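[09:14] KT: can someone run the structure on this one? pasting the chain below
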Amino acid sequence: MLPTRGRPSSIPSGQGANVRRSALVLLLLTLSALSAFPETNEPKPLDCTQLMAWIAGGVSSPRLQHIVGERGIGFTPNEAAIKLLIRAGAEPALIRSLRATHGILASSANACPVKLAHAGELIREKNYDDAKAIIEPLIASDSRSPSLHFLMGYIRQQQENWDQAFDEYSTSRDEMPGSSDTHSRLAYVFYRYDDADNAIGEARTALSIDPTNAEAYRYLGLGLYASHKDAAALHAFQESLAREPNCAEVYYDMAITLRHKGDSSAAVAAYRNAIALNPQFWEAYNNLGLLLHDLGKLDDAIAAYREAKRLAPGEASVRNNLGNTYCDKGDYDSAIAELRELYRMNPGWERGHSCLAKALLAKGEIQPGITELRLAIQQNPNGAAEHRVLGQTLLILHQEEEAVHELRTAVELEPDSPLAHHFLGTALFNSQNFQAAETEFRQAVRLQPSASNHYYLAACLMNLGRYDEALAELDTAAEMEPSQSLYRARKEELEKLIKAGNR
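[09:31] RB: done, structure tokens below
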């Protein structure tokens, strides 16, 4: 099944490795620059461009309130400015803080830019290309603006263009090396590069500049998680929540870490906290569904997936997970409906064919089931279970040659599977290749000495004329399952056959 907003497994395409090497040099230069700042160099009040860029750039409202309280503002928060800031994405709590703050009379240099407010609207609508088109000329006319580069870095981050995001955040940092928030964002980019050491380093730099930065603690937690330091990561997340207790994303990251740590009940609680804080958080619903499925709470998992689907109807991973859970529950009609709708909406989606095949076969739709199995194998040639199930299904259709081929592949891919050996033995038996069938049945007995496997080995030995050995296998099967009348009947038949042969 597919989690969402989980941990990246590899460096994104591009020049990530070179970027990181350059970043180490830049980080040292930045730290030198920071240490060179005189302690009396107080940060200037925020102008409206800076504030608006940080609002549109995803800096949290509590964080912005803290910065405004610490630095003040260099513009007058009149009604015209307030309207533009709201368009950019300012939340009510920040607006209240601004109204209570005494700014200075606005001039052309520190007035609130309308274009930036419009860019913020576009970003909230996830229309990143149009927002980028607005910001680019603003940067061209003010190439040393750290806030505009910060905002462009956020746009690139949302587009998952990590190399470009790194470049923009780095430029912002170079222009304002004392910005805790820019170092925090660089920590996240390094995390997405799967570079935990530099992620931790940048997050700690951000916290050395401003220990109140909740986002920096969050990204420190992510870096520690990526370093497999779950306890330290959880501590960092707690520090983040101590500063911003209503951050759904931190609870989400905690849940992933807790699940990795093996504390499933705490992970469920953390996902539910994330959802309570952000009821639109479809990724949290999806991952909660995964966890509940693993805990065997299939109905609860289905409820979580259905809510995720309601919030994100076009998200293929959610429909895939929901279809799989219906399948595991045995609700094959719902599984078939969900997965067929998934493939209708996303024809290129590659997962879920095994589940759909299982559902179709359970409904007796053999040929459509085979089609789905072949698709599953095409997309995952090393799927031993798919080869085995296809072989079993071909046996039903008496296509022994193809069945033997699929089942041999299943055995090669998973040599310790008693089922694969058993069904390969059955296919060979049906093809009257009894010597080869005996080998497979013996492997099945070795791996899983069940009454059924002893019985099938006995049947094979009977066809080879080795009655005494067959009788011993039937004895074992009957002793293991005394209630199974079939084993006793076959044993009695064989005993009669042996007696008749001795007369």
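[09:33] KT: thanks! DSSP finds 28 helices and no strands in the chain.
[09:34] RB: yep, looked fine to me
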